[in-house]
Amino acid sequence: xxxxxxxxxxxxxxxxxxxxxxxxxxxxxxxxxxxxxxxxxxxxxxxxxxxxxxxxxxxxxxxxxxxxxxxxxxxxxxxxxxxxxxxxxxxxxxxxxxxxxxxxxxxxxxxxxxxxxxxxxxxxxxxxxxxxxxxxxxxxxxxxxxxxxxxxxxxxxxxxxxxxxxxxxxxxxxxxxxxxxxxxxxxxxxxxxxxxxxxxxxxxxxxxxxxxxxxxx
Length: 217
Fold this sequence. Notes:
Blueprint: H1 13-23, E1 25-28, H2 34-44, E2 49-52, E3 55-61, H3 70-75, H4 79-89, E4 93-103, E5 110-113, E6 133-139, E7 150-152, E8 177-179, E9 186-190, E10 195-197, E11 206-215
Antiparallel strand pairs: 1-9, 2-3, 4-11, 5-10, 6-9, 6-11, 7-8, 7-10
């Protein structure tokens, strides 16, 4: 698993858009200042959590974080992210969904999968069947390679082969890469891109917020 060596900080807006369109993802470095990360963590400290489908640990938020935390509500209009999304998708955006995931020590990896379902699918209802949808992962902690790092399969969002069937999941994929993130970074990606999460073999937790948006037509 090779980590892609890309300098996202030096990219202009056009280069970021092209990277997302071709590779399936792009990173907006330092999207959340340290003080705002501390505020978010403080407000999420009493957010009810529940076990996930792949771990018995209290990993998934029991309610949408933007309905619990004013800081998470403010994050919907994060300037760095919103400016990019408007350049990418246009001015008429619809905020769909938020989720908070707290990876615990010794938590197992999450299989490589797609967050998109074919239009009309009843598997996940309206949430994952929007034809034009972007997901933003806001990282509240450094992941390194040992604290639930992101696993991605670049360019898988434009694959027409049957191996990219969105109902498929992979314990390992030959083209996946490990992509560590830093606290405050935002990763914007196409929900069609296959991705997963590495195991948390560290002694710390890794907090991450997911925000989804779609384009109005």
